[in-house]
Amino acid sequence: MVNGLQLFERRQNAVSQGVGVFVPTTTKSARGARITDLDGNSLIDFGGGIGVVNAGHCPPPVVKAIQEQAEKLLHTCFHISTYEPYVALCERLINLFPHGGQAKAMLTNTGAESVENAIKIARQATKRPAIICYSDAFHGRSMMGMTLTSKINYKLNCGPFAPEVYRLDFPNVYRRAGTRSESQFAADELRNLEHFCHTHVDPESVAAIIIELVQGEGGFNVAPIPYVQGLRHFCDRHGILLIVDEVQSGFCRTGKWGAYQHYGIEPDLTTWAKSMGSGMPIGAVVGKRAIMDAATPGTIGGTYLGNPVCCAAALATIDYMQDQQLNQRAVALGQTVMDRFRSMAEWAQPIGDVRGLGAMVAMELVRDRKTKTPHPDLCERLCALCLERGLILLKAGGDKNIIRVLSPLTISETDLKEGLDIIESSMRLVLEEAHV
């Protein structure tokens, strides 16, 4: 039987180093919120496959649906032969995300493909070329996704990138609001948007603005509600489509099916993936019917998009999330994590900020609360120590100084408490080591 060290040696010899290692661990099996590694250790998973297993690892109804569909049909290509799981899933999606009452959907394999296709649809619908995105954004590793992404490590030496993409500062309350109220900060940021469109790109040439309302890789920065509502009005005034990227925030993570549902707006297009299929590769673009139908036949889609087995997994996942009331669970879970992190911040001075929406919660580590200088070394040490103690924990942010929690929403209270206890005890030890 291969052990963890042997597998890493084989990986080093066989797998491109470009496929980075974010957490140095292995997996033999996983159930619920726990992973068993190749050496027999049981690990609590606060990473959730980077937000993919909101419904838990291997939820039984999803596994059953996969098995049953695999016995019937593995592949034909939806362009060649229409099959019911694809259509049924699109029907479910437009019911969950009606986009004002009349919507249509298309399926993809990944979040990056969802973004790529949403951009193509937006450009065809508006006959305009330009796209506005944000600092600290992550939209995938395809060429367009990488262009939209703001993290240097993910795009190093990969250019030239796609043209007609313009980047605006994200309305990061912790980093940029200062002493201003949320409403004043939002108003100032909207004025900055107006100025940006006078100096960088004519709004009449902008097809779409794409935004993560809670930035994933960027560090769970939550866009202020008045800013997003103002952004919707700005788009309406200029005929610009608003694309909301829900790849990491979607499917119950924030306490609603989509983060945008907290904001009192309707996007024109939304992109989905990750927890939609409980680990199976599937995503979607959902949008207003007239916009979705603006795409010329053949310009969106692909050989594997909407694979029937993946569709079955997604349909079963949605049913399971509803049965388990995971939106309500996300709210309670997120409050528990938020309360613990805020309690830690009372004695752990490097915790500069605790933020989130629903169960999408993060703490930002800084060297000094006044200067807010990022503290990536402390973050790295904390994650390493937690792993030694049996907890998988992920970093985020351009400076890698943010701890984010993406545990399965089905996690037991016992595992949740144990995981938070590990973080707290590890933080105390790290601060002792650093003499903080």
Characterise this structure.
By secondary structure, the chain is of the alpha/beta class. It has two domains: 4-55 and 325-433, Aspartate Aminotransferase, domain 1; 61-323, Type I PLP-dependent aspartate aminotransferase-like (Major domain) (Aspartate Aminotransferase, domain 2, 3-Layer(aba) Sandwich). The chain has helices at 4-14, 48-51, 60-72, 84-96, 111-126, 143-148, 173-176, 182-199, 225-238, 289-292, 308-323, 326-345, 376-388, 413-433; strands spanning 29-31, 34-36, 42-45, 103-108, 130-134, 165-168, 206-211, 241-245, 269-272, 283-288, 351-357, 360-365, 391-392, 394-396, 402-405. Strand 1 and strand 2 form a beta hairpin. Helix 13 (376-388) crosses helix 14. The longest helix has 21 residues, at 413-433. The protein starts with a helix and ends with a helix.
User: What structural class do you assign from the helix and strand content?
Assistant: alpha/beta
Domain module count: 2
The averaged pLDDT comes out at 97
Ends apart, CA distance between termini: 44 Å
Summarize the biggest pleated sheet.
7 strands, mixed
Instruction: Give the full name of the CATH homologous superfamily of the largest domain.
Output: Type I PLP-dependent aspartate aminotransferase-like (Major domain)
General shape: globular
Reported CATH architecture of the largest domain = 3-Layer(aba) Sandwich
CATH topology of the largest domain: Aspartate Aminotransferase, domain 2
Strand order, largest beta sheet: 4-10-9-8-7-5-6
For the CA atoms, what is the radius of gyration? 21 Å
State the share of residues found in helices, binned by percent. 25-40%
H and E order: HEEEHHHEHEHEHHEHEEEHHHEEHEEEH
Uncertain spans: none
Number of helices in the DSSP assignment: 14
**Beta strands, count:** 15
Question: What share of residues are in beta strands?
Answer: 15-25%
CATH class of the largest domain: Alpha Beta
